[in-house]
Amino acid sequence: MSAQLDKARIAALIPHAGAMCLLDSVISWNAKTITCVSASHRQVDNPLAAHGRLDVLCGIEYAAQAMAVHGGLTGTGQRPAAGYLASLRDVICSVDRLDTLEGKLLIAAELLIADANRVIYRFSLTCNADPILSGQAAVVLDATPQQ
């Protein structure tokens, strides 16, 4: 269950392609948690950057992709057509920008609640063991299977 995954395997599990697939690798996962790594926050062509800046709140997309990968790895094989971020709670930002961070991002997510129509995860991003962003996200799933 805890096998590492590379970027190609990650891209096969989420609807994001090319530069929008922000995660570089999955370093561990199990039925409740996933930990991913990324250095794409330092790329000048990051698709989330605006005017050469990557706001810390863009880290929520990194966390959302980790959640989606986790769902793909732990799901029953019925990949939802889409997931929609419904709410965020208890979001704490410890920096202003991601693009100024020197190290790799470590993205962790823990599944708190799951049913057929929604999932709730706690997430955190760190860089060099320093807290960057954390919170809780609720995602509504479109259960219509993909064609």
Question: What descriptive keywords fit this protein?
Answer:
alpha+beta, 147 residues, globular
Q: How many structurally independent domains? A: 1
Task: Report the radius of gyration as a whole number of Å.
Answer: 14 Å
Number of helices: 2
Q: Biggest sheet: strands, sense, closure?
A: 6 strands, antiparallel
| Gross CATH architecture | Roll
Work out the helicity level: 10-25%
Describe the protein's architecture and organization.
The chain has one domain: Roll (Thiol Ester Dehydrase, Chain A). A hairpin with a 3-residue loop joins strand 4 and strand 5 (about 120-125). The chain is built from 2 helices and 6 strands. It starts with 6 loop residues before the first helix and ends with a strand. The protein has helices at about 5-15, 60-75, and strands at about 25-30, 35-40, 80-95, 105-115, 120-125, 130-145. The chain has about 150 residues and is α+β, with helices and mostly antiparallel strands. The protein is about 15% helix and about 40% strand. The protein is globular, with a radius of gyration of 14 Å. It has a 6-stranded antiparallel sheet, covered by helices on one side.
What is this structure's SSE topology?
Layout: H1 7-13, E1 25-29, E2 33-38, H2 59-74, E3 80-93, E4 105-114, E5 118-127, E6 130-145
Antiparallel strand pairs: 1-2, 2-4, 3-6, 4-5, 5-6
